[in-house]
Write a structure and sequence with these properties.
The complex is a heterodimer of chains A (about 450) and B (about 280). With about 450 residues, chain A is of the alpha/beta class. Chain A has 14 helices and 17 strands. Chain A is about 30% helix and about 20% strand. Chain B has helices at about 1-30, 35-45, 60-70, 80-90, 125-130, 205-215, 225, 250-255, and strands at about 100-105, 160, 165, 185-190, 195-200, 235, 240, 265-270. In chain B, α2 crosses α3 and α2 runs antiparallel to α4 (about 80-90). Classes of the chains: A alpha/beta (about 450), B alpha+beta (about 280). At the A-B interface, β16 and α14 of A face α5 of B.
Amino acid sequence: MKTFTVGGIHPPEYKLTASKAIETMPLPAEVAISMSQHLGKPAKPLVKVGDEVKKGQLIGQADGFISANVHASTSGKVKAVKNAPHPGGNYSMTVVITTDGRDEWIEGCNTPAEDWKALSKEEILRRIKEAGIVGMGGAGFPTSVKLSPPKDKTIDTIILNGAECEPFLTADHRLMLESAGGIVEGLAIIASLFEGKAKSYIGIESNKPDAVSALEAASKGRGIEIVTLETKYPQGAEKQLINAITGRTIEEGQLPFDKGCLVQNVGTALAVYEAVTMQKPLVDRIVTVSGMEVKTAKNIRAIIGTRFSDIALFAGSMTEKTNQVITGGPMMGRSQFTLEVPVTKTTSGILFINNTLLASSRERTCIRCGKCISGCPQGLEPWLLATEAEFRRLEDAETYGLANCTECGSCSYQCPSGRELVHWIKYAKALLNNRRQRKTA
Amino acid sequence: MLNESFIAAVTSLGTLALLLGVIIYFVSKKFYVAEDPMVSIINGILPGVNCGACAYPSCNQFAEELVRTKDTSMTCPVGGSELAAKLGDALGIEMAEPKPVVCAVLCQGTHDIARPSAEYVGIQDCWAATQAYAGPKQCRHSCIGLGSCIAWCDFNAMRIEDGLIVIDEELCTGCAACIPACPTGVLVMQEKKAERIFVACNSHDRGADTKRACDAGCIACQKCVKVCPENAIVIENFVAKIDQEKCTSCGKCIEVCPTKVNCIVRHNDTLKTKQAS
């Protein structure tokens, strides 16, 4: 079985919802659609209070090259355009829509599927861009930008990421089981943009044998190789996935296309398929609602902008022992400060956790055991980076490869001294950013 | 045997010391750099904390520059007018009167005034907290209260009390080293006055949002703007701002301020006056 060469850890899997089919969540009374659901500049809101919107209507215009369109995820009336809590931990410009329950599509959207093979490359890219598709694995990089690499780079490998290495999350797993055909079509559309010169792979961790066979059946005779990967965290991280499948290593400062690779999440591939053939903008996504403290853990199809509080109710509410609500997986996800935050294009899961370590969490001194080094998939020395950060020797931290850290959390997970290694690294990055901004200002 | 090694050590080290001594002597004569004796005198007068408030990296560089240019407008904010007078005496020039400044906190969000957001567990540092979320108070413009700025203060003038940074105005020299250390920007420098009135709020949220999050938040109601006889108050980005040049400290704005805990505060500064030479 293939895997990446350096580091990696084996956290417990807790895939509680692996066997639960995707349920469509009923329309909430109100949706809060953030203008900042992607990497890059937030979209510019196009609607004002009192406007009637239809499902799929453009309400946020991409602002600049690295940005993405935002669409209304249901029909209704705009209640407010204001700064509201964002699952990223801060506030962002948000369009709040009171739903009318009719869930009416705007004209020209969600049309019957047409044959994408008749479309030109430019038209395909235009439809992907219009639909506001971003990487749905978590980072939210605008897909249309990723699909148009610089002219001097040749892409010879396209990888679909179905690893889903984070504990608890099963959204991609269920999607691969239930929409295997669409995913394969999406991959074919992406591959067609590179004139069929690139080899296509789908990487799936070995703990999802049913997904492997579903995709193998769907992709028969299409020249797609399904790669079963060892179950090891962070198998689904872009750099690690490329390393596992092709054996290539992305060096510091390089992007995947520097090594001829392109990685897309399986969810993104399906969204690409729907956007190109049905002109359907990205208005909903699959979210795993899980954790020990939620009554009925499930996989749901929620429209973008559904608030976490509504989802908690739909999943039979959380127990009183819940002391942490995390969006994303437990390794890289973010703790939330309010349940008012909405689902965004990158929300792969919502976890309700009783973190008993939280109350007693205390950093002790580093005992130089080296567990963080052995776990680091990027080959860094996290204890060193964290110590340099703690004493604000930021330049030193940079020379030890601060920028190369992907913040996967393997080191913090392994640390027997309970050191907040990733947090220290994030802290150092934040201080350096701030210093640079002040210098340029 | 013992004697022999003793003698060997003494003679070899002694010769080495003598040789190095001679080299040092010649080097010091040959490469002597004439330094204005005034620089060391000025250096003696300066506080010597190298805080950087004068825009020079160290007190020594400030002294060199001052002796070279005799620029009367150069000031040491830490020493104030007393020090300016001494510098002027030493150089035989009339130094400009420095405007003493003091650090002000644009937030009154103690635990009972600002409503809390989710509890923060982790690295006890404001910048680390901002990596997780907007801070342990609902108001995202407030003082986070973990004291990142304290480490930057060379004068021990800052402490955290009840989740809010407190400035000891006796000790604060106005060096402004703490300003960039604050992620939410609640620290500002203000000119010292016998009576100084300012709006102690940094919330750029709309009035309703501010009011929900804090009892002492400026809700941008315009009442103080209307009552001010000097037209010194403007609302900028949903928070009132008092022009310290125009303000006469009459206090009418404080009387009309409708917030539960008055967002406009009055401070009495202790002023050092220039000593007669």
